[in-house]
Amino acid sequence: MQFPKIWLLRHGQTEWNAEHRIQGQLESPLTALGVEHARRQAVLMAPVMAESPACYASPLGRAQQTADIALGGAPFVTDARLAEAYAGAFQGMTLEEVAATYPDIHGANPYNLDLFCEAPGGEGYGSFHARILDFMQSLTGPSVVVAHGLLGQVMRGIVCGLSRERMAALPNGQGCVYVLENGMETVLE
Fold first, then answer.
1. How would residue 110 be classed by pLDDT, with cut points 50, 70 and 90?
2. Catalytic status, residue 84
3. Domain ranges of the chain
4. Distance of CA 50 to CAs 47, 61, 141, Å?
């Protein structure tokens, strides 16, 4: 499946990222380092933004805050399909608390993508994947997307034709830009 070129930005570090606390669709503001991540992305994105591509962002605050900085004040469209995976009962818990409270689920899912998608009352992988693919299929030209780590793993995996297992093992960089084009990923740092 072919998609238009996508520049994918994960939000900068948040207070909860620093605490290893699961955000899912809850809110946590960027740290000073997170603001620096977004500023680094702004430098990387400046030549791209000069071409006025379509820009989209998750409705969650950390992505909006990152988009405001990284896109140099350019307008963007908020799309609910770009929200992070809904992690049900795990939202607000640290990874350590999940391991203690749900040892079987934690032990069987070493990667965060799988762990969050197995959360009791959560969105689940099938639904998460479907809404990301739906968004991607709606793109009509080169696009900038500011969103989240797990969402980015799935989007990158779809473009690159990866299995779920390989998606889950992808790195989740902050302060970089993933360029997705012609079935391949390039990282700008």
1. very high
2. yes
3. 6-188
4. 5, 25, 16
Query: Which backbone phi and psi does 86 adopt, to 5 degrees?
Result: -80, 115
127 within 8 A of 133, measured Cβ to Cβ: no
- DSSP-derived secondary structure letter, 12: P
Q: Determine the Cα–Cα distance for residues 64 and 56; give it in Å rounded to an integer.
A: 10
27-67 pLDDT, tens digit per residue, is: 999 999 999 999 999 999 999 999 999 999 999 999 999 99
**Residue 26: band (very low, low, confident or very high) from pLDDT cuts 50, 70, 90:** very high
Count of other CB atoms within 10 angstroms of residue 187: 13
Catalytic residue among 20, 27, 36, 84, which? 84
CATH number of 6-188: 3.40.50.1240
Tell me the pairing of strands 177-181 and 6-10. Answer: antiparallel
Residue 161: how many CB atoms within 10 A of its CB? Answer: 10
Whether 19 is a known active-site residue: answer no
- Which residue is it, tokens 């238009």? 4
Percentage with pLDDT > 90 across the chain: 99
Q: 93 and 21 in contact (C-beta within 8 Å)?
A: yes
Which pLDDT band, with edges at 50, 70 and 90, does 115 fall under? Answer: very high
